[in-house]
Amino acid sequence: MTDETSLFEREPDQVRRLHGGFFHAIPHARELGLEVVDMGAGWGLLKIPYRAELVGNPQTGVLHGGVLTSLIDSACGLAVFCRLPRMEAIATLDLRIDYLKPATIGEDLFARAECYRLTRQIAFVRSVAYQRDPQQPVATSVATFMRSSASSVRAPRPPEKA
Amino acid sequence: MELQQLIQTAREQGDLSGLMGHIPYARLIGMDMRLDEAGQPLFVLPYQSKNIGNTALPALHGGVIGGFLENSAIVHLMWNRDAVEMPKTIDFSLDYLRSGRAIDCYARCEVTRQGRRIAHVTASCWQQDPAQPVAVARVHFLLT
């Protein structure tokens, strides 16, 4: 268990600067039109505007599940970055998505993710994807992330008091 | 023409070229499919730079691999079914085993169980060696 405060709590402006435009540097995030809407200590909110190129079934016009997967994976990643005590690389271990209802055609898709537990090696994240109303989710998701191996080295113990 | 009919026609004519072109998202990530020796679909995701998620490694975006597997599972199930309804995804579970390098990906799926209402499909994605998968997925579909 780690009790270090997040970098976001200590340096919110730095983290906002770092991740606010972060996704523009990722080719596939740019391809999907992924936007950072907001973030806080241990959470992130992302958006993908509706586009015909992202549709799964041309007969219905509903967005493809893969778009939702990318959105949720990215939102979960942002939530972990906003929870970490310092910048480090992370990798998705697994992701499970429950499709609660079909997405409404033509509406933008949001995902809000929260890192609800961070250990020395693992980050646990849950996420909700919605369109207009956060209370009426399109999908819910849970994910785990591996922290980079460098960070898994145990910090030296503080000297014991005499 | 509807996707189900397109798949049915492709199956009857043994011609898969262009099938993926009818799915906008599949076109976006550049996905393709062909039949293997056993007559089962083999899905291909040729490398393209816009699928990159990590420019430092470089590695494919995890969401692309997820979308590729999810789409593979849907088309695989429809390929192996005569019913006309489009299967609805109930839930999708994805395990990432290693990072996807900046090269082509392949995927194969298996219908583990097909009941009257529910189908269970597994999918595996690899790059150079099928025994060293990049990711494996499992999908539950509602059929009615």
Head-to-tail CA distance between termini of chain A:
26 Å
Assign the CATH class of chain A. Alpha Beta
CATH superfamily of chain A: Hotdog Thioesterase
Largest sheet of chain A: 6 strands, antiparallel
Poorly predicted spans of chain B? none
CATH fold call of chain B: Thiol Ester Dehydrase, Chain A
**Low-confidence runs of chain A (pLDDT<50, min 5 residues)?**
none
Nearest-integer average pLDDT of chain A? 88
Classified by CATH, the class of chain B is: Alpha Beta
Chain pair with largest interface: A-B, 37 and 38 residues
Described by strand count, sense and barrel closure, the largest sheet of chain B is:
6 strands, antiparallel
- Write the CATH architecture name of chain B: Roll
Class by helix and strand content of chain A? alpha+beta
- Assess the beta-strand content of chain B as a share of residues: 25-35%
Helix content of chain A: 10-25%
Q: Can you say what the CATH homologous superfamily of chain B is?
A: Hotdog Thioesterase
How many distinct domains of chain A?
Answer: 1
Strand segment tally of chain B: 8
Oligomer category: heterodimer
By secondary-structure content and strand pairing, the structural class of chain B works out as: alpha+beta
Quickly give the CATH architecture of chain A.
Roll
